[in-house]
């Protein structure tokens, strides 16, 4: 692969990975307008976010076997077309129930971008480059929250919240064109892989019985679910409690997105001196300490608007370290079943994310405590699972994928 092809491939894979961040972040400034227009409380609008996360969690499990069986591109085309149609349906929604349903369908289509992008990273790049590539993808993903809420805020003011979903449909159509003309095919179709339920479950079991995958996918899923608490609660906290406007919220969101960009790229340099495992452990310790200070300070009333923004900035900086390293360690043992492994890993993350966002909605009490409390619980629980899982990995045999031996991974 030439340097130009390398750059274009990473750019397209990064853009594919932004489908869900854009779908989530872009409509957050429109929550109050949606609630008012559809005559429903904002807690019901938050459930449309939960529905999207549930759809991603379930949909990734469906796409994993399809990507392994039919290759990467055909399922990718189908999913993007479903996403485009559902986005138009969201724009035409006249009730909160219809919006929730359309968001579920939108997620079922759009989640193919997440699974396919991660599987293609495993297809197109050597194992010892996976963490670095994921760091670059995370950079592209991290830029989207700087753009999406700001665009969403201005679009809501200028054209109404419906326009947000029309924009998403147009962006997905452009992605479809880019994938068709510029993205390499990756792994070819494998007719030997059956799509019968028993065979599919067997592929998933093969992945799940790998201790390294199970440990780091759970750690990554739970620890990186913390931002979903922020996503679910931030619009209410900033716009209702602190009375910022849609545009101001978009700029706050963009500023906090910067917290993930620097650490993501710092991770590439740290990998030259430290292992993935060391970086994840240190990051979770750091986030646990910051999270506890965030909860205590919020409860005690130490932070005003700018103090809360500053503490959230410090906390979210850890996400740029945990996510790429956990992804690399989860997928490293697999080649033949990379699609199924990516699907399970993504399903764990979005499944935990849907639970976390629902928890913030249920615990809603007109304060910031539910948001910051749930964020902190996520990273502490991730740290506990990491400590337990690494002991299992260290003292148990490491069975590999069906078609390759397992090797020790130190990226």
TrEMBL record:
UniProt cross-references to PANTHER family, sorted A to Z: MAJOR FACILITATOR SUPERFAMILY, POLYAMINE TRANSPORTER 2-RELATED
GO CC list: plasma membrane
Alphabetized UniProt keyword annotations: Cell membrane, Membrane, Transmembrane, Transmembrane helix, Transport
Family, per entry: Belongs to the major facilitator superfamily. Bcr/CmlA family.
InterPro entries assigned: Efflux_drug-R_Bcr/CmlA, MFS, MFS_dom, MFS_trans_sf
Source superkingdom: Bacteria
UniProt source species: Spirosoma pollinicola
Protein name, UniProt field: Bcr/CflA family drug resistance efflux transporter
A Pfam family that the UniProt record links to this protein: MFS_1
